[in-house]
Amino acid sequence: xxxxxxxxxxxxxxxxxxxxxxxxxxxxxxxxxxxxxxxxxxxxxxxxxxxxxxxxxxxxxxxxxxxxxxxxxxxxxxxxxxxxxxxxxxxxxxxxxxxxxxxxxxxxxxxxxxxxxxxxxxxxxxxxxxxxxxxxxxxxxxxxxxxxxxxxxxxxxxxxxxxxxxxxxxxxxxxxxxxxxxxxxxxxxxxxxxxxxxxxxxxxxxxxxxxxxxxxxxxxxxxxxxxxxxxxxxxxxxxxxxxxxxxxxxxxxxxxxxxxxxxxxxxxxxxxxxxxxxxxxxxxxxxxxxxxxxxxxxxxxxxxxxxxxxxxxxxxxxxxxxxxxxxxxxxxxxxxxxxxxxxxxxxxxxxxxxxxxxxxxxxxxxxxxxxxxxxxxxxxxxxxxxxxxxxxxxxxxxxxxxxxx
Length: 405
Prior knowledge:
With 405 residues, this protein is mostly helical. The protein has helices spanning 3-48, 53-73, 83-102, 107-120, 123-133, 140-168, 171-192, 204-209, 211-217, 219-245, 255-262, 266-269, 271-280, 284-305, 311-340, 348-399.
């Protein structure tokens, strides 16, 4: 092959990366909304199906539990089965489960459908390693960052989008819209998604048994999952409590104002491609330090905003703090994913599943911490606890260089 032929081939491959990355970002952003929509729809669904409060609360719990099991039981399949087929089959299950949820006539069928839908959302974490594997190592951070921006935008838009659809039509309409969007994406993925044959030579049971060994043998996975868990705890602590704080003085926002405020966080998602690009240039260590300092500083701003008397000044400072918080969190998440996707190609699916499962545990800890902090010390204590998670991340940065190359 001549030099010109090599150059042309590289150019064609680079051009092919862009639609793949954008398709991955859109897919993750659309699918992830199904995980957070139940938090908004609980009341509507419960009243519609005459569910007691404890049973309605299971909708969100079972969705997240299904997702956690999907990360552990389904995502490892990408290390065993051709990736395109696994993703399309999992997304197909998500479409069927969303429709089953939309038309569920009884609480028991709805709970079963939401559990399956949550498990099928594991398709999100199948897309990330596939995109990463199709991009050269020196551009992998940027690619992962762009896919992660779609994920973060989906998370942040899930609440206002769900509220809008439910207000315009009904809670069932949300799941119909979700199914339609996922069906359109499945069609695009079936046409444009490349095939990727895994290199692992092991049985499914052996893959599942390898999880403890991967954690033991890969310090990068342990450290980066740890800091990702910490910033996810900060994220959930903040967003779990801010909806309780915004209706109070000095902010005084109603339900629509709170939904609009959630859109501010989308600005932070713009940092993910930049973080990935800078990580590819060898700046991961200072970026991790900066990310955790941003988490700490932004939460100090958010606490200060609650003490201001001027409504405009308070909203401005809180908005600035929110954007900086999301920049810090998405920077850590992007660089952490980049680090683990530079490890073993034959175990990329399992490591992505472990990484996400562990940082979702951090999210649960953050939500529980926010609830306790709000009860005992209000908004200021919530911000202090959330910042404490950032301090732990910063300490980790200072005592280790693991996963910063």
